[in-house]
Model the fold of this input.
Amino acid sequence: MCRKYLLPLVLAGLITLLLFFSCAKEDVSENAARLRIKLTDAAAPVLKEMFLDIETIEVLANDTAGNAGEWVSLSFTGGEYNLLKLMNGRTVQLTDQYFPAGGKIDKIRITLGNRNRIVTITDVVIPLQKSPAIAEHLIIHDVDAALTANNIISIVIDINAALSVRESNGNYFLDPRARAYPETYGGSLRGYVVPPQASPVVLITCEGDSLLTLPEGTEGMFLFTGLHEGPWKIHLIANPSAGYRDTIFTDTVVQGKITEITPKPIRLRPQ
Done:
């Protein structure tokens, strides 16, 4: 049986769900937070479209004593989202509601529908079957986001699309690789790479963590968020047929800051 992840096909992509918790500004209980969910950031160089079919979103919050509560369904009616329209910080809001403060969000549970699919640049539609691991739900563990009253708390769910689609005997499966973290966690890396003719992919690695994305526009901007502090290796990988050299260097992520990668832009050299 042939089974492989579609890294050569998808190559790069980050699906990110942003959950925003904030204090209510209207006449509601002070022990409430406002919850917004946004969908952002995905990329794949050989794909024209990549749709994620989301039916429900639920959260599991622990109380102040650490006791687990029950799953709470959010006010979300479902929808299909073209993830390739959401890259490098662009978002679409999925829900906006009040949510009880106190305790912390420990887990997030997403129910996916059956219309997940990719569309290639030649307009071939490829259905994505749900892997057995997510036949019922996709559960994100260890979210660890405190629901403090009168404060805005954001949670980011980051799904690495490059490792979330695999092929087996001609069938394509969706098997999301996801992480979740408070938006205030860690720092960010932002940089620019040219020329666009190199069609580069940006890969960053640190202590076993790997994230990928595609630079945008003629300026070649790319952005990674929610990174833990410390040195990250930045790999700029040119399309093999473009005639440009790959390059690797290191920059340091600092808590609560956007590290601007220099030089600006990074210019890949011809082979």
Q: What stands out?
A: The domain at 187-267 is CATH 2.60.40.1120 (Immunoglobulin-like). The chain has two domains: 3-182, 187-267. The first strand starts at residue 3 and ends at 5.
